[in-house]
Structure formats: C-alpha cells, structure tokens
Design brief:
- The protein has 217 residues and is of the alpha/beta class.
- The protein has 2 domains: 142 residues, 3-Layer(aba) Sandwich (Rossmann fold), CATH 3.40.50; 60 residues, Orthogonal Bundle (Arc Repressor Mutant, subunit A), CATH 1.10.10.
- It has 10 helices and 6 strands, in the order βαβαβαβαβαβααααα.
- Strand 3, helix 3 and strand 4 form a beta-alpha-beta unit.
Length: 217
C-alpha cells in the first residue's frame, strides 16, 4: 500500500493518542492530522487530503455520520472507516448510507483495525464481526427498504444537527450562529423535532440524542 496518510477524528484525547501510537508503530502508516469534532474533521480533510479517515461517530458539534456524508460528497475518493460502540442495525445502515467504507467496533483488536484498513484501501468494504450476520445480510440484500421508517429516520440532516446542539446545551441564538441560519429557522427545526419525535422539552430531546449516540452520556 505504500505510505498510507491517515487522519484521526476522535474527541477523546486518550483514545486518539492510543490510536496514533498503535498505527504510528507501523511504518506503512503516517498520521498526518487529528480532529476533535466533526467540523474539524471536515476542515482537516479539506486541508490535508488524506488517503484514509478514521472517524468516531459520536463527535461534538457535527456528528461523525454527518461529517462522513459531507466529506464523501466533496472527496469521494477518500476512504473512511467509522469507529463506534454502536452495534445496532439502525446505526450500521445509516453509516453505510452516509458513505463509510468500513465499520469497526471500538472493542476491536489492533489486528482487526489493520485488516479493516487494508480491505478498504483495496476497494473492499469491512464490517466488524461483532455486527451480526443478519444485519449485514439485510443491508446487502436491500431489505432495509422494506422496513417502516422510524422517527429517527424521518429527521433531516439539519434537524439532526440542531438536535445534537440542543443536547450539547446550546441556546437557539447560539445554534443559529453556529449553523449560520436564522433564529426563526432554528425555532422551526426545534418545533419539527418535538413534533416528529413526540418529545416536548429540551431535557427529553437531550435524553433522546444520548440514546442515539449523538452526544456522549
């Protein structure tokens, strides 16, 4: 594979440092950048144009899933492996649909991560064995299209961004400034979230966001 240029996106410093130490020990890998939230990951990829991005899904400000979607839209040639604790079908399907080339659970071994990297760089996909065969088969056969949409799946990308920021404690005005949209638009998104999810206050939205892995518990 030659010298593979990698960007690490992980908001927990100790985990990011551990990944860097593990991968840097292999002369085939070069860590060229690090990011602590989704938006920083997008900027880092834009600036450095790596071969591979290792992306945590539960990231501050912009989720890893939204960052994957944005990066793949702009740089489809860059390979992305999602790193996550989530084993559910919902998370797996959403991450693959966002454009991830691999899906690796955080309890994976170093050897498994290296195997995942080698697979995606050869143009193959990689899913951790910890993700059930039933889920994988359902995705490959397109069976997910027959499932009724959950409340989560009805949310737009922007609504998920607003939900994440609400759960992180941002006020409407701060959300408007952060997303470069009007205050009225934020209020509309907030009302839509409450209606779609049948949740009626910020505390309930925060709990829901935690359950979905948008923010850390």
């Amino acid at each position: 594979m030659g010298n593979l240029r990698i960007v690490l996106a992980e908001d927990h410093t100790i985990l990011r440092e551990g990944l860097r130490a593990l991968l840097s020990a292999d002369p085939a890998f070069e860590i060229i950048g690090e990011a602590q939230d989704g938006r920083e990951a997008v900027r880092c990829v834009e600036k450095l144009e790596p071969d591979l991005l290792l992306m945590d899904l539960s990231m501050p400000r912009m989720s890893g899933m939204d960052a994957i979607r944005e990066i793949k839209k702009r740089y489809p040639e860059i390979k992305i492996i999602a790193l996550t604790v989530h084993k559910t079908e919902e998370y797996l399907l959403a991450t693959l649909q966002a454009g991830a080339d691999g899906y690796v659970l955080k309890d994976a071994t170093h050897n498994e991560l290296v195997l995942a990297i080698k697979n995606v760089m050869r143009g193959k996909s990689y899913l951790s064995p910890g993700v059930s065969e039933k889920v994988i088969e359902g995705y490959l056969e397109g069976k997910e299209s027959n499932r009724p949409r959950s409340s989560w799946e009805t949310l737009s990308q922007r609504e998920r961004e607003v939900l994440k920021l609400i759960a992180e404690g941002y006020k409407n005005k701060e959300i408007a400034e952060d997303l470069c949209i009007s205050l009225k638009t934020v209020e509309k998104h907030r009302a839509n979230l409450m209606k779609k999810l049948d949740l009626h206050n910020a505390a309930a939205l925060t709990v829901y966001a935690m359950q979905k892995g948008l923010v850390n518990r």
